Amino acid sequence: MDGAAHLFGDDINTDYIISSRRKRDTVDPGKLARFLMEDIKQDFGQTVEEGDFIVAGRNFGCGSSMEIAPLVIRAAGIRAVLALSFGRIFFRNCINIGFPALTCPTTRIQEGDRLELNPALDRVLIVNRGIELPINPLPELCTEIIRVGGIIPYMKKLP
Predict the structure, then answer these.
(1) Spacing of C-alpha 112 from chain mean position
(2) Using CA atoms, how far apart are residues 46 and 94, in angstroms rounded to an integer?
């Protein structure tokens, strides 16, 4: 299944992902999803489609350690976030909830490109242009945590 690429720049912090003012009334990711990235692209959360991708530059998810940021991204139906690099805590929060936050050469991806992520999470195909991009390999443990749906399902599998 492919999805559209939605481009964002460098240093997108967690307050841009979901504004603090929106968390006053609820912290339900499903209810907050319609406000995803609203301070950068006003109607983004209402127009993004299931299976789409967020594509960013350096340091995506920097700032506070709010787990709600990746939860809202996932609740909006985003398939994965592709970036040149991630804020450390945001990256780990993504892994913990079983959501792919992957580093790759995003500068080759254009707004609206159709992207397809392979199941091994090691490459992404720009379908409409026939370009395959390598994804920096995740540690095997992180890949397994994503595969099973997060750290809690992973821990439940342990003996």
Answers:
(1) 16
(2) 22
Can you tell me which residue has the tokens 């692209």? Answer: 41
Distance of CA 147 to the CA centre of its chain: 15
Query: Which pair of structure tokens corresponds to residue 97?
Result: 């909830």
Whether 113 contacts 128, CB under 8 Å:
yes
Residues 158 and 105 sit within 8 Å (Cβ to Cβ):
no
pTM of the predicted model as reported, rounded to 2 decimal places: 0.95
- φ/ψ (deg, to 5) at 3: -145, 165
- The alpha carbon torsion through 136, 54, 112, 123 (nearest 10 deg) reads 20
Residue 117: which H helix or E strand, with range? strand 114-117
Dihedral Cα 76, 135, 98, 112, nearest 10 deg? 10
Q: Phi, psi (5° rounding) for residue 117?
A: -100, 130
In tens, the pLDDT along 64-98 reads 878 999 999 999 999 999 999 999 999 999 999 99
CA–CA distance, 86 with 74 (Å, rounded to integer):
16
Domains delineated in the chain: 3-157 (3.20.19.10)
